[in-house]
Design brief:
heterodimer; A: mainly alpha; 16 helices; about 60% helix; B: mainly alpha; 4 strands
Chain lengths: ~325, ~425
């Protein structure tokens, strides 16, 4: 809830501008004494009163762009001002590329606002130049690499225009972000989106090879920093998506379920990279994973699973004790029936 | 736990944990917060000040959310078992009705364009302060038309004309349709499948979904706010039009796992985060904490729950710690986390989360609103019931229960639904 800082002198009010004298400003509440009124600064109240006046007459003109820009800069969440601005741009056939350049500035200033990103989408539907947009978005990630709106806008661009030349740089782009922060879950999600949810792209027809590549990528990521929920979720995600049983991972997972002292240092298995030497072990996510393998085996293995769930609830993941107790109840019920 | 491999995520996590140290219990302190007790009067003062004296200029950022400001503050009062006097109830209804558009929907303020989100907040506020005489001023036929005009071929809805499509809008529309008795097959055709396709590989739900060639893919990662909206939307649809046996459902197993993993560890005072590897924030006490009742309802429908169904699968006692020690602001109101300022939004969603935690922790079935006492604390606020101080021990709930689908007390939600089901109301179609 940050208010924009104004270092420049305040611009003149619409009420003081002769060229606006033909507009009749409209007060917000006319016959109501509102509960929880906001004490607006004069400059905002002035602009909002004139905006209501404009909406009433339906005027769409260059000066409406000036007025809506002022409101947006004072309150970027004013969706009605955005909506009216967009209609005005179309009505007066304004240069939408100019508008996009203005948006480059506003998007960075008001990164967390729904409207700046939605307005951009509307503009892009007309301008249809998604490639330069991807470059702009990459720049905004320097401000905030997990901004939800920016990520969903990027994914929309890729999916909507769905052009091989757009998709082709995505994997390298994700790599760069994951190299900067291997715990960036937005980037992991984008990797999943790009690799598994974008259809089959040129050079990606060999699904076996893709899967091998992703498995080694995620295993290496886990090896670097084992207690990273994003990477474990990605591993589960690609196994589920491709219908691969978790048991295929048992050789990889097992060392992560043991304490640091029990690690075998001499073996080098490129398919199953071991935990880093500074890792905090045993890793709860690995114990959970191993328990899932035993649970899927059923029968006597269910008891091994319940032992692991017990150790999670009592030792490795105490905050979720009630969940692990639930898993034990459900597991035991499954073998009794 | 950075495994000796620090990155921006683990560095900000470490900084946050340092701020969340539980203060030592000091019974001699005048303030209740260090004792882990909900300071009802402090928060009532905060809410009363804002409602009656108004909001400072920084709330200009909420100028397009005015019905939300009323909903957040009045539902907070309801949870604290307090209601406005008749004069201010009328003022609240008049304020909301001034935001009603000829299209029948509500805008974020008078003269603002009709929009699904402020419409939900407006209708819920009317549920709290309204009565049949004000409810009759809700224009259902126009509102229904407006809803239909926002519908997309894939079953989703825009939030406004030319607005964005996301699960917030879908949830707000369905909640209002349910409260006002306007859920028709026509309205929700295709919506179920659209909501389902927002579930991500992590188990939680994303903001929306988009078709890529033959497939559809979630836009954005699993997120607490969107997950609440999607799950509540799903339950609203299931309860009105139960699905056929063979039809595709959401994945409850991965959802359950994702939800419990949003709860923080001891060093985070067991608060909830909204996404994997993000920081805890008081508002997810409701957005994530509120999901467990909905999940349990779905499990019950599928006959999945056994005799232990009332036993929570998450840690409600822990969540109380976060809200009472970290989210309560010493000057009143509740917040994201220290050292942030409180605001209306966090005040409601922290209190709603605390209510959920209190009822889950006692595993009690008492969910009714008490309406007995007539003790007056001030001419403006009327206490609906006396409440015992809340503590992090297994104390009986001090707050009212809130309905997991609407975030209204059951009394308010049921009265409104009963009115719109009754014969006095004109048809909307």
């Amino acid at each position: 809830m940050s208010s924009p800082t104004t270092s420049a002198p305040e611009p003149p009010r619409y009420a003081d501008r002769p060229e606006w004298s033909d507009v009749i400003p409209v007060e917000q509440y006319e016959n109501v004494n509102p509960l929880a009124p906001i004490f607006y600064k004069d400059i905002y109240k002035d602009a909002a009163d004139y905006f209501r006046g404009i909406v009433k007459t339906g005027e769409k003109s260059q000066r409406v762009l000036d007025l809506t820009e002022r409101i947006i800069r004072l309150n970027p969440a004013h969706y009605t001002a955005w909506q009216y601005r967009y209609e005005t741009l179309l009505a007066i056939e304004a240069d939408l590329e100019d508008e996009l350049r203005l948006m480059d500035e506003l998007a960075i200033t008001y990164l967390k606002t729904y409207q700046v990103w939605h307005h951009r989408r509307l503009l892009m539907l007309k301008i249809r130049k998604p490639a330069t947009e991807l470059v702009f978005i990459a720049k905004t990630f320097r401000e905030d690499a997990k901004n939800y709106h920016t990520w969903s806008y990027r994914q929309w661009l890729l999916a909507y225009f769905n052009d091989d030349s757009l998709w082709s740089g995505e994997l390298d782009f994700v790599d760069e972000l994951l190299n900067a922060d291997i715990r960036n879950n937005s980037a992991w999600h984008h990797r999943f989106f790009t690799v598994f949810q974008s259809g089959v792209r040129d050079g990606e027809q060999d699904t076996e090879r893709i899967l091998r590549r992703e498995l080694i990528y995620v295993k290496q990521s886990i090896s670097l920093a084992p207690n990273n929920a994003s990477a474990w979720n990605y591993l589960r995600g690609i196994l589920d998506h491709n219908g691969i049983p978790y048991s295929k991972m048992i050789a990889f997972v097992q060392p992560y379920t043991l304490p640091n002292d029990d690690q075998k240092a001499d073996l080098v298995d490129l398919d199953n990279p071991p935990p880093s030497k500074d890792a905090h072990l045993p890793c709860a996510a690995a114990v959970e994973f191993l328990a899932d393998i035993y649970e899927a085996e059923g029968g006597d293995s269910m008891l091994k699973a319940t032992e692991l769930w017990k150790s999670l609830g009592n030792e490795h993941d105490v905050a979720r004790k009630k969940y692990w107790e639930y898993r034990i109840r459900e597991g035991l019920r499954a073998i009794q029936t | 736990m950075d495994d000796g491999y620090p990155t921006p995520t683990s560095i900000s996590q470490k900084a946050t944990v340092a701020l969340l140290v539980q203060p030592p219990i000091s019974p001699s302190s005048a303030s209740k917060i260090p004792q882990g007790i909900l300071d009802n009067n402090l928060h009532l003062g905060y809410l009363g000040r804002h409602l009656l004296q108004g909001l400072p200029a920084r709330y200009t950022s909420q100028d397009a959310s005015q019905s939300w400001l009323l909903f957040w503050s009045l539902q907070s009062l309801s949870l604290l078992k307090v209601e406005l006097d008749e004069g201010n109830k009328k003022r609240a209804s008049d304020t909301i009705l001034a935001m009603q558009n000829p299209a029948g929907a509500f805008g974020g303020g008078p003269g603002q364009a009709p929009h699904l989100l402020p419409t939900y907040a407006a209708i819920c506020t009317m549920g709290i302060v309204g009565s049949p005489s004000t409810w009759s001023q809700i224009n259902r036929p126009s509102l229904y038309q407006f809803f239909m005009s926002l519908k997309e071929p894939d079953g989703s809805f825009r939030v406004s004309q030319r607005g964005e499509v996301d699960v917030r809008g879908v949830y707000c529309l369905l909640a209002v349709a349910k409260l006002l008795g306007m859920m028709t097959r026509e309205l929700v055709l295709g919506t179920r499948e659209w909501v389902r396709s927002c579930q991500t590989y992590e188990g939680g739900f994303a903001s929306a979904t988009i078709g890529v060639g033959e497939q559809s893919a979630p836009l954005g990662e699993a997120h607490g706010g969107y997950t609440f909206c999607a799950l509540a939307a799903w339950v609203l649809l299931e309860s009105e039009f139960p699905s056929d046996k063979g039809s595709k459902s959401i994945n409850l197993k991965s959802l359950r796992r994702w939800l419990v993993n949003m709860q923080g560890d001891e060093d985070e005072l067991y608060g909830f985060r909204g996404r994997t590897n993000k920081l805890v924030d008081g508002c997810y006490s409701w957005w994530v904490g509120g999901c467990f009742k909905l999940l349990a309802e779905l499990e019950e429908r599928r006959g999945m729950s056994g005799k232990d169904a009332e036993e929570p699968i998450w840690n409600p006692e822990g969540l109380k710690q976060y809200i009472l020690y970290a989210a309560q602001h010493p000057a009143g109101g509740l917040r994201d986390k220290p050292p942030k300022s409180p605001d209306m939004y966090h005040t409601l969603y922290c209190l709603a989360g605390l209510s959920v935690a209190q009822y889950a922790a006692t595993a009690s079935t008492t969910t009714s609103t008490s309406t007995t006492s007539s003790t007056s604390t001030s001419p403006t606020f009327r206490t609906i019931a006396q409440s015992a101080p809340s503590q992090t021990s297994n104390a009986p709930p001090s707050l009212n229960a809130t309905d997991p689908l609407f975030n209204l007390t059951q009394t308010h939600a049921e009265a409104m639904m009963a009115y719109f089901k009754s014969g006095e109301v004109e048809a909307f179609q």
